[in-house]
Amino acid sequence: MEIEKINSGLSTKTPEICHTPNAPVGGIEKQIVLFIAILSGFLTPFDGSAVNIALPAIGNEFHMNSISLSWVATAYLLSSALFLVPFGKIADIYGRKKVFLCGIAIFSISSLIMTMVTSTELLIGLRVVQGIGSAMIFGTSVAIVTSVFPPGERGKALGIYITAVYIGLSVGPLLGGAMTQYLGWRSIFFVNVPIGITAILLTLWKIKGEWAECRGQKFDLTGSIIYSVAVVAVMYGFSVLPDFKGAALLAVGIIGVIVFALYEMRIPSPVLDISLLTNNRIFAFSNLSALINYSATYAVTFLLSLDLQYTKGFTPENAGLILVAQPVIMAMVSPIAGRLSDKIEPRIVASAGMTFTALGLFLLIFLTETTPIWHLIITLVILGIGFGLFSPPNTNAIMSSVDKRFYGVASGMNGTMRLLGQMLSMGIAMMIFAIVIGPVEITPEYYPQFVLSLHYAFILFTVFCIIGIFASLVRGKRSPIVHANISEKGKK
């Protein structure tokens, strides 16, 4: 209770009345909640990684150039980023289970429709709808797990949840490559449907509680609109650089972010309590570390998938088999890292992970058309160790640094940093493609320019990750009260 009082004191505004949720606390009920979270944690990363491996096949069917092909991934990330924080706040007010169920339903229905898509425009439009469903899932699943598991068990539970995320990433390239090769890329989206239905039925059947600590608060619609406009301007502007329109949109987006922050500090029920960033060092720098880490790593799978299939001539199935090395290692390391973050400072474990990631990205700078596959696999293993060590402790630090009435917003903020980082990573890749290759299909005559693009991208990503190491280290130490709670839990 003391830690919650300290964290709630970070807000300079008087909150409206928040009610104690009717949440499950029994051991069996907690495991059911975790299992449902595992299903949802698997669903969206599986879709994203499987689609990445299928991009060349999608591009061939619709005759898409490198820029428009990138938007198949980016449209999904953009819509997810727009709605994560608003849906996190909506979940805190109206109920996290309700928002979670709606998100699973939207994601599953849009996936089913994706199997019948007939045009590029409809394809990208449905990816936007999928992103909205994903935002509702990710804006609530981590918050629900955090609500149910106390600090002494939270790191372990989050580590298991993130392991499910990495299993989705692991299976995605392998299964997605095989399905693309033998059943066509549309089959990838059909897999989401039975998984989504299972999660919905289990939630309705087994989970009777609800989590809505902030019933009665007013939803900040104006702030949400300002936030969404700013995010769209920043990310779309970045994607069309170095064109003048890109620079203008970036400027509009930056101004929008400033206006959003000033507006949020003046209203009693903001969609994002800015004091969480200004007065909570751990929360602020943990989110910054997540942003940098995802910015430096997300496009790696996208770029290597294209490299393996275009310049090295691998089939989608074989390319997926090679790329699976990274997420498999992530899945092995994540539970260990989660348990470690319950016992020692999360910043130490997370910073070690960021260091491994920087090393892996540095090795990719020297990638060429003749690079042996064993060299690439070793590099992917190093990256897997790095990200597996980073993500669970960093998520634990974010969620444990705030009062429970902010769990939805904190979960949404954590997810937003992930998605903004992923979008920034894809934006960097698209910008480099636009400058070095141009808006053309990647054919053999453009392979030298494509490989040069990879070098530039991995140089930038390495620099990002080195900066991220320092951001992770300076976040500060976890509250001694949390340490005391965990130590007491261990004695029992």
Question: Mind explaining what this structure looks like?
Answer:
It is a single chain. This protein is mainly α and 492 residues long. It folds into two domains: 25-210 and 271-491, Growth Hormone, Chain: A (Up-down Bundle), CATH 1.20.1250; 221-270. It contains 18 helices and no strands. It is globular. Residues 1-25 and 480-492 have low confidence and may be disordered.
Note the main attributes of this structure.
Growth Hormone, Chain: A, 492 residues, disordered C terminus, disordered N terminus, mainly alpha
Determine Rg (CA atoms, Å).
21 Å
CATH homologous superfamily caption of the largest domain: MFS general substrate transporter like domains
Could you state the order of secondary-structure elements as H and E?
Answer: HHHHHHHHHHHHHHHHHH
Tell me the helix content: over 70%
Name the CATH class of the largest domain: Mainly Alpha
The termini sit apart by 19 Å
Low-confidence stretches: 1-25, 480-492
| Total number of strands | 0
Mean pLDDT score, rounded? 79
Strand content: under 5%
| Shape call | globular
Structural class: mainly alpha
Tell me the CATH architecture of the largest domain.
Answer: Up-down Bundle
What number of structural domains do the residues give?
2
